[in-house]
Amino acid sequence: MTEVEIIRLVADELKLKAFQVQNTIELLDSGNTVPFIARYRKEVTGSLDENQIRAIEERIHYLRALEARKETILASIEEQGKLTPELKDKILKATKLQEVEDLYLPYKPKKRTRATVAKEKGLEPLAEMILKQDITEGSPEEYAVKFVSDEKQVSTVEEALQGAMDILAEIISDDADVRKVIRETTFKTGLLQSEEKRSEGRTPYEMYYEYSEPIHSIPPHRVLAINRGENEGVLKVSVEVETPKMIALIEDLYVRNEKSIFIDYLRKAINDSYQRLIFPSIQREVRAALTEKADEHAIGVFAKNLKNLLLQPPVRGKIIMGIDPGFRTGSKVAVIDETGKYLEGTTIYPHPPQNRYLEAKSIVRDLVNRYGVDVIAIGNGTASRETEMMVAELIHEMKDERKVEYVIVNEAGASVYSASKVAQQEFPDLDASMRGNISIARRLLDPLAELVKIDPKSIGVGLYQHDVNQKRLAEALHQVVESAVNMVGVNLNTASASLLKYVSGLTSRTANNIVKYRDEHGAFRNREELKSVDGIGEIAFQQSAGFLRIPDGDNPLDNTSIHPESYEATQKLLRKFGIEDVRSGGKVLRKKIKEADVALQDLLEELGIGEPTFNDILDNLEKPGLDPRDEMPKPIFKSDVLKMEDLREGMVLKGTVRNVVDFGAFVDIGVKQDGLVHVSRMAKKYVKNPLEVVAVGDVIDVKVVSIDLERGRIGLSMVLD
Fold it and tell me: Among 164, 520, 550, 660, which residue's Cβ finds the most Cβ atoms within 10 Å?
């Protein structure tokens, strides 16, 4: 396919206009980032969003790789002198890599096989006789005896016929049409089966000990569970099909003359080809395709959960205490101010084995009073519930002194952060065990700024994240973090290098250089000053500037997502309608434009911008410094504790969605164990995908429908009546 044909194909597949695809490809090829294109090149792309741009990027990458593979294959076949016009046309018209590889299979260099050995013995002519099916008189042995040769190590007629069938089996196996029909039929009618291979006591895979499900309908999470059971040696997994039906399909393609004297040998070759060569290969392909599909699904779920988690609203203007609970080594306590600055930390022992409960409560009370703590953030790991009970008791005792609330924070990945290089650089004088509590507090203060310091896989909102394709997972999660960071924007004067490196156009090196420049020269006064940072040239500046904010800088526009390239148009717009103060005048600008009754097209031409950029400028002037996270549900603050033993069926509680998976959502209702809202209890109507109903961070009302104290399980429902 030519580049024009590729563009047309992608446009048709994604239901876009050809110019949108072409312009987007040109922007990507020129080194523009996806966030930059989505935000600042709307006129060029027809206002495509990030998802559409990434879809174009992914599809173009695939099709270009496909074209490159076609060139390699065509060159290989031509070098062998076997490239026919018909074969070349088939390869050039193929739109899937699998089709191209199937067509290449007969010409692909092979290891020494039974067929190659038979060819060396000169048995190809006999194989062709059997395949043509023209001979209807005599016996196969009459023709085969001519190929018996001591010199070629063919001792008997039977050996000659067997060698010919080996050649036929490989020809049939290499036939692209055969592979296509067997592959498609296997996907349509095959079953994925699993059985117990070995077990040592109870395992999580017991439901798969005698399990079978159609390949075309098996859910992704079950594929991943079965794969894990197989990898751990607990399950034996296979693809089951109706073998006679498959063989009959191949016979329909090859058997043309029932009267041929070789018909039985042809059928034997077909049977052998299917059983020995085709089915094992197709089974591997099917398993690989199921796994790839399941991987993409799991990665997609993880990515959506992660984005929702990263976009949780910050808790502004609060002094926060973070507690990382623990039994043996004690609970680690840290206090941070409104900016996230670490003030003080210590270790308390409110639980066994030391059990210095009253001392621990006294220490926490002292810190609360000394620093004016507003909120206590408690990690949800080991000893969390016991710590919560102590904090709730203390808050009750202090209710007449000051208002203090607490919240349970997901601590997944805090230990990973504690031992990381980032944590060591931030707190070189603190022991690793004293860093996780700071992270817990900061996760409440600004989830995005803190969570970017941790490997996304460790954040705890995925499903089977350690089983899926790790390279693809890392790419997808990087895109999610990049998207979230650029959607929110970053304070140039307070952001860490961990946060800055995700900004469009920046790298780890330039992010570190920004922090270094800040340390040496003080706070940035304007965006233009970015160009003084080592490594940030015109391109990096163009890609990054609009996503970097300076709240108290020289130019109020530097605290908006208006790009510096649109400053002139913005100032011209403000002057035209007599607005001098950007900070206060933005709110009346839209009203003045409406009252002036100016033709929009004339105004746009005068300003030299398109309508999407014009609308973005108005939005930003109306709400400068707007943080999109502020519109998200706020965390639930508490002052008293609820135990699992306090739950009763029918109770309606408010909870926070912690994780969304294929079969439902886990919801924190304030007891030690998250409850599960099964997908069947999410609405009165059928729900196919839980992500259509809830997202990580949502605050929802749920009804308790079941309580299993022994196994620590809580069943919840979002259907309240």
Answer: 164
Beta bridge partners of 235: 196
φ and ψ at residue 468, rounded to 5 degrees = -85, 175
Quickly list H helices, 80-201.
85-93, 97-104, 114-120, 124-132, 140-144, 157-173, 176-189
Is the pLDDT at 338 greater than 80? The verdict is: yes
Q: Is residue 166 part of a domain?
A: yes
Contact 610, 43 (CB under 8 A): yes
Residue 616 structure tokens:
């973005």
Whether a cis peptide bond, with omega within 30° of 0, leads into 353 is: yes
Separation of alpha carbons 169 and 161, rounded Å: 12
Largest Cα–Cα separation, the chain: 109
The CATH number given to whatever domain includes residue 78 is 1.10.10.650
User: Mean pLDDT across the chain, nearest whole number?
Assistant: 92
Whole-model pTM above 0.70?
A: yes
Query: What is the distance between the alpha carbons of residues 8 and 56, in angstroms, rounded to a whole number?
Result: 12
**Shared domain check, 454 and 357:** yes
Which one, of 608, 539, 599, lies nearest residue 567 by Cα? 608
Q: Verify that 702 and 604 share a domain, yes or no.
A: no
The domain containing residue 712 runs over which residues? 644-717
Is residue 257 within 8 Å of residue 157, measured between CB atoms? no
Note whether 550 and 659 are same-domain residues: no
pLDDT of the residue at 504: 96
Are 85 and 70 in contact by the 8 Å Cβ rule? The answer is: no
Last residue of a domain, one of 598, 630, 662: 630
Residue with tokens 């792309």: 45
Say how far residue 103 (Cα) sits from the centre of its chain: 33
Residues 88 and 139 in one domain: no
Task: Give dist(CA 105, CA 108) in Å, integer.
Answer: 5
**Inside any domain, residue 499:** no
CA dist list (Å): 277 to 102, 115, 190, 230, 357: 14, 12, 18, 23, 69
Number of other CB atoms surrounding residue 92 within 10 Å: 13
CATH code of residue 675: 2.40.50.140
Helix (H) or strand (E) holding 247: helix 243-254
Listed residue (34, 4, 33) closest to 19, CA to CA: 4
Structural domain count of the chain = 5
For the segment 655-676, what is each residue's pLDDT rounded down to a tens digit? 889 889 888 999 988 887 889 9
Q: How far is CA 106 from the centre of its chain?
A: 37
Question: What 8-state DSSP symbol labels residue 376?
Answer: E
Query: How many helical (H) and strand (E) elements, i.e. helices and strands, does the chain have?
Result: 30, 15
* DSSP annotation of 405: E
**Strand-strand pairing, 235-240 and 191-196:** antiparallel
Integer Cα distance of 345 and 336 in angstroms: 9
Compute the distance between CA of residue 146 and CA of residue 135 in angstroms, rounded to an integer. 15
User: Is residue 508 a part of any domain in this protein?
Assistant: no
Other Cβ atoms closer than 10 A to 270: 25
**Of 107, 138, 168, the domain-final residue:** 107
Say whether both 624 and 592 belong to one domain. Answer: yes
Distance CA 720, CA 655 (A): 14
**13-37 b/e with 16+ CB inside 10 Å = b?**
eeebeeebbbbbbebbeeebbbbbb
Q: What is the pLDDT of residues 553-609, one digit of tens each?
A: 999 999 999 999 999 999 999 999 888 877 766 778 888 888 888 889 999 999 999
Q: What are the two backbone dihedrals, phi and then psi, of residue 501, each rounded to the nearest 5 degrees?
A: -65, -20
For residues 481 and 502, the answer to whether their CB atoms sit within 8 Å is yes
Q: Do the Cβ atoms of 407 and 636 come closer than 8 Å? A: yes
